[in-house]
Design brief:
253 residues, alpha+beta, Alpha-D-Glucose-1,6-Bisphosphate, Chain A, domain 4, 2 domains, seven-stranded antiparallel sheet, two-stranded antiparallel ribbon, 10 helices
Length: 253
Amino acid sequence: MDDIFKALADPSRRTLLDLLYEKDGRTLNELCAHLQMSRFGVMKHLRILEEAGLLTTRRAGREKYHYLNPAAIRQIHDQWVSKYAEPWAAGLSRLKQELEREPDMERKPRHVQRIAIRTSPEQVWSALTAPEKTSQYWYNGALRGEVRAGAPYEILNPQGKPQARGEFLAVEPPRRLEMTWQLLELAETAEEKPSRLTWEIEARADFPGVTLVTVVHDEFEEAPNTARVLEEGLAIVLSGMKTLIETGRPLSS
């Protein structure tokens, strides 16, 4: 939390966050065009923001794109700010906007969120795939289905009604889980085409005992309502997973 507030203290870094709020997924060249400082200076500020968890990066071809990370903002809300200023924190949790798709960016991921958890990749994998654990942080939804590539799955609420369904596309425990996603519980999303969720789990060698969890939501051109819901919802899911693993208790308890 100290790293987050230190990163936010610099006006140039706040400007970079504002630029990504206006249009997410920008390259270094795009961001440099808006700041009167050297390319090296912008790179240094971006590195500090990334180390604090306030933004994430993804490569598509030769380009590196920068994204706001709502999960870190959600941590501020859940662990500190909500005690003093709930309305303000709720506004911060929306520090991300719909991306404007560009025709030359077919490979660019659309929503990228990341969180660090004090645990092992194996524990994260268990939390991600075990029904008794998903039901404690994924909006009370229990994952049902054989976790293997090509197998279908459902997320069931406590009454046994499907909240979501899809198919596992890639299963590489404990490092990567790729799945299609169709959100069923809302009228505006139930008839949309499936989108895709990719979970990437990485042990941090520089921070022993810490695992980095990244979730990418993409291929939602035909599911705009689903994209809007998951943009904020996934930040809560990640925060809930972190709390459950690190404390043994659900986020709401």
